[in-house]
Design goal:
Strand order of the largest sheet: 4-5-3-6
Number of strands: 6
Structural class: mainly alpha
CATH class of the domain at 1-208: Mainly Alpha
CATH architecture of the domain at 1-208: Alpha Horseshoe
Number of helices: 35
CATH superfamily of the domain at 1-208: Leucine-rich Repeat Variant
Distance between the termini: 72 Å
Shape: elongated
């Protein structure tokens, strides 16, 4: 790489391309502003533009403000644009040029007006004296089209609207400099036939943080959610979110924004999620569709959805396990958002400290730093909880007559069977995630299990668990063996960390598929028998599930009779809709026909007392008559298994 002094020598070259390249390298170094300033009067427009661009953001660029201001009226479009962008980056340090730039707002060339307005945007209070001329520029429909040909040919990128259209540039400037009187004028632009002007007006309103008194504009902004231009819809989402944050969020507006969570445009989906995160309690009804965006192809959508869920308070914290899944995402920005969200989720987020701890050595430095910060937060939370428990225990201990120190609590009597006080509970399908077993795969006992599994299953189970793809791991015929072996592998880790609990549990149990793991641990059958049973079970249930669209949903906060009533309301014809699992007194899993489940999810989420209503990562109606062991699909699978 050439040194700054060598590059300065190249600035005196007779070759324009050499000079432009040297300007670009000096720009990256943030070096030699004085040498670059000399080129602002060069005879070649390309050189002048390159020098102005190179000065953007440099210390000392303000010394060139007078020359840059003259360049705003240059006959060459790209010189004007570069000068405007440089002045915009200098900001208040170039405030001495406000009056000259203000005069350019009445220039007959739309490109000059746009460049002047863009330059004024960041020049602070002194530029506010030109609000009136800027408001007048809002009515200009002209556009500088001089760059269109090069853009169409692919030679140059499309010039931003704020540097082509005076109305867009004026709107952006008023977003920063405007007063309350400017709001009404900007609102008039929302009905413009030009989508770029509509988008600029909405973005300006979002910058002005229009306030609670602007609720009268809410219906007009809500209409813009359906604008054919994604940029306009996205901007409208942003403003409505800000209005909700500053005033009282409307349930109808929240519902209108939530409809955009399924928009084809990633930009719109991301903006809708961000907007809902500003709407407080109104957003809670849409947690489920927001969580569906965790699997979106766009990282921007995933990140916006994670942030929205994290901002939904206690109800959002119930989705901590889904957020944790994203810590294994291949995209660093998604992992970063997930780690920060878990940190924000308090004690529920701290439940996933092991997953976060693994990211402390992540290849991406931002992810690693965020993980370390989150782990420290989790540690502080746990330390505070222990301290509070200790204080409560001391406070509740009766003082003796002579104020002697309280006697330590007596040790609990050991169970007569000689077992530990621990009970082992193994999870069922729905708890799987890509990279499961990554922290136990090298344990000798686990290696033996995986070797046995490969012989019986006929495929590399560890590879599937570590690498996915996720949609394959979620398939019942693959997921059930993975969860079965995963549970036994987890026991090996427990055996290392707490031998007594692993060797002598007081009880073992499992939920659904977890029963098979529990039976193996209890010695009812061995690993090979369990694997064959689970393989057969998974294949039979997969076959039965594929014959009929199914889903499972989970609820918290509703009484059993309420859930049963909702199930009855949502059934039609021969559809199945029933309680499949009782998790706790007011917690249930329901399963059945897909159409009925979708109705149930919607009804339950709107029922008073419902704390959580969400779709499970298991598109099969387990524990219903759709998976009756006597069904033809199941029977045929078991017959093939016996053969």
């Amino acid at each position: 790489m050439a040194s700054p002094m060598e590059l300065v020598k190249q600035l005196g070259s007779g070759d324009v391309d050499t000079i432009v390249a040297a300007c670009q390298e000096l720009s990256a170094m943030k070096a030699e502003p004085a040498s670059l300033a000399k080129l602002l009067s060069h005879k070649e427009p390309r050189v002048k533009a390159a020098a102005a661009r190179a000065l953007c953001g440099m210390d000392g660029a303000e010394a060139s403000a007078p020359v840059l201001t003259q360049m705003v009226t240059d006959a060459d479009t790209y010189v004007r644009i570069a000068a405007s962008e440089c002045l915009n980056s200098v900001g208040v340090k170039a405030a001495s040029q406000v009056a000259t730039l203000g005069k350019s707002l009445t220039n007959s060339n739309p490109g000059v007006v746009a460049a002047a307005a863009h330059a004024l945007t960041t020049m602070g209070p002194s530029a506010a004296d030109y609000v009136q001329p800027l408001e007048a520029a809002l009515s200009l429909e002209a556009e500088d089209i001089s760059t269109h040909m090069l853009t169409a040919a692919g030679v140059m990128p499309k010039t931003p609207a704020v540097l082509r259209k005076p109305a867009c540039a004026a709107a952006a400037a008023l977003g920063v400099l405007g007063s309350s009187s400017s709001v009404a004028k900007l609102m008039e632009l929302l009905s413009s036939k030009d989508w770029e002007i509509r988008a600029a007006a909405v973005m300006a309103l979002s910058q002005m943080q229009v306030g609670s008194d602007s609720s009268r504009f809410e219906s007009q902004l809500t209409d813009l959610l359906k604008d054919p231009a994604p940029e306009v819809s996205a901007a409208a989402c942003k403003v409505l979110g800000q209005m909700a944050q500053n005033g009282n969020p409307s349930s109808s507006t929240a519902a209108a924004v939530a409809e955009l969570l399924s928009d084809p445009s990633p930009q719109v989906k991301a903006s809708a999620a961000e907007s809902l995160s500003c709407m407080g309690d109104e957003a809670e009804a849409f947690l489920e569709p927001i969580c569906k965006l965790f699997n979106d192809k766009s990282w921007k959508v995933r990140v916006a959805a994670v942030r929205a869920v994290a901002g939904c308070g206690e109800l959002g914290q119930m989705y901590a396990s889904e957020v944790c899944r994203l810590t294994t995402n291949n995209d660093a920005r998604t992992k970063l958002a997930a780690v920060k969200a878990l940190e924000q989720m308090g004690e529920r987020g701290a439940c996933f400290d092991e997953e976060v701890e693994m990211l402390m050595s992540d290849n991406d430095p931002e992810v690693a730093i965020a993980a370390k910060k989150a782990i420290q937060t989790f540690f502080d939370l746990k330390a505070a909880a222990i301290e509070n428990q200790t204080k409560m225990a001391i406070a509740e201990t009766p003082a003796t007559a002579n104020h002697a120190s309280p006697s330590p609590p007596s040790e609990p009597s050991a169970p007569s069977s000689g077992s530990s006080t621990a009970a082992l509970l193994f999870p069922g399908q729905g708890s799987q995630y890509v990279k499961m077993m990554s922290d136990v795969k090298d344990m000798p006992a686990v290696k033996d299990m995986l070797s046995t599994a490969q012989k019986i299953l006929g495929y590399d189970l560890l590879k599937l668990c570590l690498e996915g793809p996720e949609d394959q791991l979620e398939q019942t015929k693959f997921c059930q063996p993975a969860m079965y072996v995963g549970g036994l592998a987890g026991l090996e880790l427990l055996r290392k960390e707490n031998p007594e609990a692993a060797e002598k549990p007081r009880a073992v149990a499992g939920l659904s598929l977890g029963e098979y793991t529990a039976l193996t641990v209890a010695g009812v059958f061995d690993l090979e028998t369990g694997l064959r049973l689970v393989k057969l079970r998974g294949e039979a249930m997969q076959e039965a599930a594929e014959a009929y669209p199914q889903e499972m949903v989970t609820f918290a906060g509703l009484k059993k009779e309420v859930v049963e009533g909702l199930c009855a309301e949502c059934r039609s014809g021969d559809e199945v809709c029933q309680i499949a699992n009782i998790l706790f007194p007011t917690g249930f899993c329901c399963a059945g026909s897909k159409a009925a489940m979708e109705k149930l999810l919607e009804k339950a989420s709107k029922t008073d007392g419902c704390l959580q209503a969400r779709l499970l990562y298991t598109p099969w109606a387990f524990h219903t008559k759709l998976h009756d062991a006597r069904s033809p699909h199941a029977l045929s699978s078991f017959e093939r298994g016996r053969a």
